[in-house]
Amino acid sequence: MKLTKRGEYALRALIDFGIAYELGRPLVKIGELVRKENLPVKFLEQILMQLREAGFIEAKRGKGGGYLLAKPPKEIRFGQVIRLIDGPLAPIACVSQTAYERCTCPDEDHCGLRMLMLDVRNAIARILDRYVLADVVEITLRKMRRDKVPIPFMVEKLLTSPPVNPSLYREEGHPLGSFLQEMEDLSNLSSLVPSPEPAAPARSSSRRAKKDA
C-alpha cells in the first residue's frame, strides 16, 4: 500500500470536517480547507466530489454553503476511505481481500514472499480498519489543547484540555507523538478516574420493625 497525494489530501480534509463537527460547526467552506491545509483548490474539488459520491460528505449550495460530513465520524473508517481513493491496502495483489489477483508465482500456497506480504497486509488493516475518524479527531484535538496550539474552526467556545499525567509519556512501546501512543495515554488517563462507590444496601423493613420493638 502506498498513500498517494490524493489519498493524503482526502484524509486531511476528512479530519478537518471531523474537527469542525466535534466543535459544533460542521459546515466548512472549501476556501477554509485550502488555506488551512495549503492544498490546490482544483485538485481538492475533485477529491471532495469523489468523497461526496461515496457518501462520506455532502455539499450545501448557496452563499453560505460548504461541505460537511454525511455521517457521524464514528462511522467512517480510514480503511474504507483509503480503499476508495487509492485501492487495496495489500502491498501485492495476491494477498488482497478486496481485489485479489493471482500472481506469477508457480506455487502460491508455498510462496514465502506471499506469506510475508499477507502479514504486512493484515498489520496495516488491523489499524486502518479498527480506528475511525472520531478516534483521530479526538486525539488530534487532545494534543492541540495540550500543546496550546490554536484550534481551527473554533467559533465561540473555548475547550480546555484534561489534566495530563507526565509519567504516562514513556520512551518505550509506541513512538512518542504517534497516534497509537496518544490512544494508549488516553486509555491510561481514563483508568485513573475513580469509579463511584456503590450505595449501601437498604435495610429490610422487617429488620427495622424488630429493632424498634
Given helix and strand content, the structural type is: mainly alpha
Low-confidence stretches: 156-172, 208-213
Q: What proportion of the residues is helical, as a percent range? A: 40-55%
Order of strands in the sheet with the most strands? 1-2
Can you characterise this structure?
The chain is mostly helical. It has a domain at 5-128: Winged helix-like DNA-binding domain superfamily/Winged helix DNA-binding domain (Arc Repressor Mutant, subunit A, Orthogonal Bundle), CATH 1.10.10. It has eight helices and two strands. The protein has helices at residues 5-22, 30-37, 41-53, 78-86, 112-128, 133-146, 179-192, 205-212, and strands spanning 57-60, 66-69. Strand 1 (57-60) and strand 2 form a beta hairpin. It is globular, with a radius of gyration of 24 Å.
Question: How would you summarize the topology of this molecule?
Answer:
Layout: H1 5-22, H2 30-37, H3 41-53, E1 57-60, E2 66-69, H4 78-86, H5 112-128, H6 133-146, H7 179-192, H8 205-212
Helix pairs in contact: 1-3, 1-4, 1-6, 6-7
